[in-house]
């Protein structure tokens, strides 16, 4: 994508036409006599908004008195019951330090930090001397760090004589004060060595208004993991020499492992690095480097000095040292320099990522009035990293995500690159400019970065029409899937560091993003984006809290007809409560009733006592009537309310959550789901019900699993999608059918059902648009199922592809990625089948895995290797995965473990249980993923409790993981016991395209 092809954003009133006009309908109600004119507590409020082409009616009902349960409004709503009104809580406290605050000084008292707020750091002068440790015994060189830090402290409280700070795994820690007449009498001493909390005691009390300087010196070493200050290893492409990168990953609490600091997001300070490092390596950081000089040891070391950062939180501080080259320089319209750093051989593959980066930053800089604060924004490729980290001024990112070349990256890799860059660049505003006040507000960064990444994708691809469909199919779907079990709210105060890593899940990303989008639906784009703008301006260089966001939105609706909505109340239920509702829709004659109840996949889930279930939500309801499809009606259904209203006649149907803004499912009781879906599909010529059709598609399987609809209703509705001409939703159905088939597994007696489901998939492929992405996706799933079932045809084809497309054509070539002619999407499967087929090809693939330097192909080869069924090899591989070493990057361990388990479940489970404690010690951060893979039982719910009985320590430490695991297992058992026996597609036609289904196999080099 070239720069001049990228669409430009208008500033900043996005998407919504500016000529929206509002008509206060209160007068209508007053005139009709249903509302007492003088009683503002009991009015109905309605808004009519006219946009360019569509008449968009938002009908907002906000009732403030519980006693009012019969308001007859001229818009057709006849009854509202039981609205519990709570006066807005006000737990807010005032924060003293003005630098903590942007705009509003009111933030809630939810700090869970180990540090007191008796003073604030303003400046860190950090000096690091980094050299190879000659005493290291590891294969990977360990680097030795000799550090000194001078921390300037301000805003000291009068009566303090103790300075508490963070330091973790730092040796030889000593401290002095540079202020005359103040001496350290004790320390540094550990308050909590495990959490990294230290203190020094002074001989006199500190005085408010005076600036103090604390000097600390220490030593530490690099680690081989991927957090803190760690080493990555790779071999150079040309001469196969060993090369290393040392880099930081500080989020959430690892800055304290490289230098003593105040390691909480609420402490924003300036950081300045002076780094002495081996001369053959280049150092990059948040800020540009100053001209460097050579020092001592016959010129073996280089000193790189960086400009000081603006005030930033410690978790976004970054430093990387390696054999880096830099790409060409690009400049955004506003003059910000963009560059990519990474290993030499990838510099020719930076073109697309640079285009994406430039497009994203141009868009963001034009979108927000709050300026990006630095002169540059780099991307640095790190070999061992999995994802990406939004370090201010220098985003660290997995090499796989930014170096793109058609030899090894397919379309999904390119899309991933764009999403990743959009996400991390959005964090420069949501996270870096406005930083979570504490980790309970992490969703304010992740939710918005997710939201903005979809928004940016749409803008850059000039694809603005279906943003909501994309939200519904991706973050909303993922959020709902995880939130279907009793889980944690988006605002979560975690118990320990392990839980902290575990909660960065689709709740923090997908659900938070969907809640923000729901608010966008309520207020419209103009108010929503203006409020975001205001929120960023007010809190610039300050801190994020959801109450500040609601304040900005509340402010944005003043003098509009939406001002009666209490946005704090509206958001509180969604942000502080786990779960989400299902809206029950039923009708009796012309009378419709809407009710909300919690949606649960299992009734007897293991719950976290911190967040009791059963709380209900104020639910924004969007709906359309078949008698007037172009009109969207809107109201807020109060918690525990039941809403009834009339429709024109018996054939007038209503469709709920048609815009998919709502984070809830919809269950049509009467008339049935199938009846409503039929209408949605038939009436879709105008496009007004596209969202309603998507909703029924998204909700179909979950409604069946949760017991809202029975098997007959399920199949009848599913059948409606078989020949649907709109294929957008086929991908969702394909994935759901695949999951259902996996759940059925090899349970005897379900041959017909499996045949039916595969026939259905085959029909989706058949009726889809030929060669479209969706059709290819469904075809791939069908193929995977065939292969998983070990159909000879598939095995033969994959093996043939391996021989013809890899083995024969890659003779004498060292790097497979340079010669393989198998389509990228098929390579993993092809390597897998070859590895399974016997020693000859297994050895061949292993050899190439060891030699390969391409991170894309290396992972594919590794996944292939893990398909082996040879028991001796399985054991060796298991030990390689679960023991610290340099043969597999830590970031790939969990994925490879998955494949090994999938191919050898009972053996791997046994080995895992025997070695669990040892694995937890070696890989505390990965243990949860290993356990989830190995202990997800399809038919035994007692397995996990049994395991926990024998591993009490692990049970406490990874409580959150095991709770999730037990709930999943309960659901799987319920599926087998209660749901599966009812799944009999007796009245529906079975596999109509048998012939075509067979012919799914295809020639060696076609994507099939
Ligand atoms: Zn993020």
Please, could you describe this protein's structure?
There is one protein chain. The chain has 1008 residues and is of the alpha+beta class. It has a domain at 773-998: Alpha Horseshoe (Zincin-like fold). Helices cover 37% and strands 22% of the residues. The protein contains 28 helices and 36 strands. The strands form nine sheets. Strands 7, 8, 10, 13, 16, 18, 19 and 20 form an eight-stranded mixed beta sheet that branches. Helix 14 (730-744) runs parallel beside helix 16 (773-788) and helix 21 packs antiparallel against helix 22. The longest helix is centred in the middle third of the chain and has 33 residues, at 507-539. It is globular, with a radius of gyration of 30 Å. The protein starts with 20 loop residues before the first strand and ends in a 10-residue tail after the last helix. 46% of the residues are buried. Zinc ion (ZN) binds at residues 423, 427, 446, 449. It holds the Pfam family Peptidase_M1_N. Residues 653-953 form the ERAP1-like C-terminal domain. Zn(2+) binds at residues 423, 427, 446.
């Amino acid at each position: 994508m070239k720069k001049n092809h990228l669409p430009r954003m208008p500033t900043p009133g996005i998407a919504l036409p500016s000529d929206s006009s509002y008509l206060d309908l209160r007068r209508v109600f007053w005139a009709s006599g249903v509302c007492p004119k003088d009683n503002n507590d009991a009015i109905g409020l309605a808004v009519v908004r006219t946009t360019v082409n569509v008449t968009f009616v938002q009908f907002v009902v906000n009732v403030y008195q519980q006693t009012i349960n019969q308001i007859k409004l001229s818009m057709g709503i006849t009854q509202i019951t039981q609205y519990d009104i709570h006066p807005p809580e006000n737990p807010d406290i005032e924060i003293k330090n003005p630098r903590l605050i942007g705009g509003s000084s009111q933030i809630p008292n939810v700090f869970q930090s180990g540090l007191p707020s008796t003073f604030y750091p303003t400046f860190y002068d950090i000096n690091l001397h980094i050299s190879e440790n000659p005493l290291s015994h590891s294969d990977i060189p360990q680097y030795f760090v000799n550090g000194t830090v001078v921390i300037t402290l301000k805003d000291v409280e009068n009566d303090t004589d103790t300075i508490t700070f963070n330091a973790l795994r730092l040796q030889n820690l000593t401290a002095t004060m540079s202020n005359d007449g103040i001496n350290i009498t004790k320390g540094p001493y550990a308050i909590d060595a495990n959490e990294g909390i230290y203190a020094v005691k002074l001989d006199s009390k500190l005085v408010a208004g005076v600036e103090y300087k604390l000097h600390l010196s220490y030593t530490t070493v690099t680690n081989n993991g991927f957090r803190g200050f760690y080493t990555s290893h790779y071999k150079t492409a040309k001469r196969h020499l060993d090369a290393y990168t040392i880099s930081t990953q500080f989020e959430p609490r690892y800055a304290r492992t490289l230098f003593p600091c105040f390691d909480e997001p609420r402490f924003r300070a300036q950081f300045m690095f002076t780094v002495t490092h081996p001369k053959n390596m280049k150092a990059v950081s948040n800020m540009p480097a100053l001209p460097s000089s050579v020092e001592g040891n016959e010129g073996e070391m280089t000193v790189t000095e960086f400009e000081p950062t603006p005030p930033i939180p410690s978790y976004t501080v970054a430093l990387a040292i390696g054999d880096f080259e830099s790409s060409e320089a690009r400049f955004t319209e506003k003059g910000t320099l963009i560059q990519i750093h990474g290993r030499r051989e990838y510099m020719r593959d930076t073109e697309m990522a640079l285009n994406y980066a430039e497009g994203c930053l141009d868009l963001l800089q034009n979108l927000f009035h709050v300026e990006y604060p630095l002169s540059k924004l780099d991307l640095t490729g790190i070999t061992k990293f999995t994802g990406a980290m939004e370090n201010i001024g220098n985003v660290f990112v997995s090499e796989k995500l930014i170096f793109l070349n058609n030899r090894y990256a397919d379309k999904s890799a390119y899309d991933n690159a764009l999403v990743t860059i959009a996400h991390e660049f959005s964090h420069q505003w949501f996270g870096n400019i406005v930083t979570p006040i504490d980790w309970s507000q992490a969703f304010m960064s992740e939710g918005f970065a997710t939201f903005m990444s979809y928004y940016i994708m749409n803008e850059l691809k000039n694809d603005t029409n279906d943003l909501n469909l994309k939200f519904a199919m991706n973050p909303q779907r993922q959020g709902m899937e995880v939130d279907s079990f009793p889980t944690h709210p988006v605002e979560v105060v975690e118990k320990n560091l392990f839980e902290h890593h575990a909660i960065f899940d689709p709740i923090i990303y997908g659900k938070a993003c969907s809640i923000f989008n729901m608010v966008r639906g309520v207020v419209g784009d103009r108010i929503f984006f203006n409020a975001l703008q205001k929120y960023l301006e007010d809190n610039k260089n300050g801190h994020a809290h959801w109450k500040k966001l609601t304040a900005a939105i509340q402010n944005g609706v003043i003098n509009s007809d939406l001002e009666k909505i209490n946005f704090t109340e509206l958001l509180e239920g969604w942000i502080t409560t786990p779960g989400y509702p299902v809206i029950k829709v039923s009708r009796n004659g012309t009378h419709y009733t809407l009710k909300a109840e919690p949606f649960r996949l299992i009734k007897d889930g293991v719950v976290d006592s911190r967040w009791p279930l059963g709380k209900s939500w104020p639910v924004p309801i969007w709906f359309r009537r078949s008698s007037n499809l172009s009109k969207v009606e809107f109201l807020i259904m109060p918690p525990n309310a039941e809403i009834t209203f009339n429709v024109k006649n018996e054939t007038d149907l209503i469709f709920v959550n048609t815009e998919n803004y709502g984070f809830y499912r919809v269950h049509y009781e009467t008339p049935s789901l199938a009846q409503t879906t039929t209408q949605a599909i038939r009436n879709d010529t105008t496009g007004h019900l596209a969202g309603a059709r998507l909703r029924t598609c998204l909700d179909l399987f979950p409604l069946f699993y949760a017991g809202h609809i029975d098997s007959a209703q399920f199949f009848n509705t599913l059948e409606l999608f078989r020949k649907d001409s709109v294929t957008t939703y086929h991908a969702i159905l394909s994935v759901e059918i695949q999951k259902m088939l996996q759940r059925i597994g090899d349970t005897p007696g379900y041959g017909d059902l499996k045949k039916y489901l595969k026939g259905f998939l085959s029909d989706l492929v058949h009726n889809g648009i030929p060669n479209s992405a969706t059709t290819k996706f469904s075809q791939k799933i069908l193929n995977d199922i065939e292969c998983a079932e070990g159909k000879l045809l598939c095995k033969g084809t994959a093996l043939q592809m391996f021989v013809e497309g890899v083995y024969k054509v890659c003779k004498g070539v060292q790097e497979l990625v340079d010669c393989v002619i198998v389509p990228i999407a098929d390579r993993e499967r092809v390597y897998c089948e070859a590895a399974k087929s016997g020693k000859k090809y297994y050895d061949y693939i292993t050899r190439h895995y060891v030699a390969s330097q391409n991170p894309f192909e290396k992972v594919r080869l590794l996944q292939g290797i893990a398909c082996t069924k040879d028991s001796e090899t399985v054991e060796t591989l298991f030990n390689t995965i679960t023991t610290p070493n340099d043969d597999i990057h830590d970031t790939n361990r969990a994925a490879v473990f998955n494949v090994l388990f999938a191919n050898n479940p009972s053996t791997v489970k046994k080995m895992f249980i025997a070695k669990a404690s040892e694995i937890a010690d070696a890989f505390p951060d990965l243990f949860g993923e290993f356990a989830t893979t190995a202990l997800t039982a399809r038919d035994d719910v007692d397995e996990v409790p049994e395991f926990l009985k024998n591993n009490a320590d692990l049970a406490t430490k990874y409580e959150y993981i095991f709770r999730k695991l037990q709930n999943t297992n309960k659901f799987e058992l319920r599926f087998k016991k209660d749901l599966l026996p009812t799944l009999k597609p007796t009245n529906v036609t079975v596999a109509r395209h048998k012939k075509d289904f067979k012919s799914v196999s295809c020639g060696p080099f076609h994507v099939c």
